[in-house]
Design a protein that fits this description.
With 142 residues, the protein is mainly beta. Helix content is 0%, strand content 49%.
């Protein structure tokens, strides 16, 4: 994390097959320029990006997440113990070899001026979906 975004901690990341996972091989965790690719060591618990900070008067969290073609994972964002968003990151309509990106914006104004812990989860234990890497970029708190 010190090379991608040193303000955040990465927990429970693992290694496996390259290219987003093949067959029974899971994905792989690595850094590619400004993109962090993660895959959980334990599919039940998932990967977590964690940060403690004091928020500004009008705080927001923005970032982009992606997945490979035919792969999926679930994103959850928590501020303290409150779930702020939950969404499926699905690469099903993308051509093989392409990556699908989604922009995420989380309004944190109910926590303005407070010390808080932010947690971003990648969960891959999904029914009827093929799990894959999560790709993260442009993670910013205002």
């Amino acid at each position: 994390m010190k090379y991608w975004n040193p303000d955040w901690k990465l927990e429970r990341a693992g290694f496996g097959g390259a290219g987003g996972g093949l067959g029974n091989l899971r994905g792989i965790t690595y850094l590619d320029g400004d993109v962090l690719a993660t895959c959980p060591r334990d599919p039940v618990r998932g990967v977590v990006l964690r940060r403690n900070l004091k928020l500004s008067d009008k705080p927001s969290l923005t970032f982009q997440v992606g997945t490979d073609a035919g792969r999926s994972w679930e994103l959850e964002v928590y501020a303290g113990n409150k779930r702020m968003t939950k969404r499926l990151i699905d690469g099903s309509p993308v051509q093989i070899g392409d990556r699908k990106w989604q922009s995420v914006a989380v309004d944190l104004k109910e926590f303005s001026g407070k010390e808080i812990q932010l947690r971003l989860y990648q969960r891959t234990l999904l029914s009827d979906k093929i799990p894959g890497n999560a790709y993260w970029k442009a993670l910013e708190i205002k």
